[in-house]
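Field reference: sequence -> structure
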Amino acid sequence: ADLLAKTSGKRQASAAAEEAPPAGGAGLQLENLPSNIREMHYAVRGEVDQMAQAIAKQLKEEGHNYPFSEIVPCHIGNPQAVGQTPLTFHRQIVSLMTNP
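Structure field:
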């Protein structure tokens, strides 16, 4: 219970610090940001994914009107989906250098 109280107290202090204006009044403020930045939403599974799923469903049906027969899901940042091999060699080298 004490840990929970300490944690929520830290969150409240952190939130208050984020809302406080920077010293001297200069700096990045929410109201200074363009509206398209303030209203932006990040959705990995947004419109592109929904459209890709709909097209993939249509591709399974006979007589579809697309000049391709499959969907390659490369909009989610997964290079292995398009056949790229994982960068294991580079990861192993970096691991050896950082954890000898």
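Note: The radius of gyration is 24 Å.
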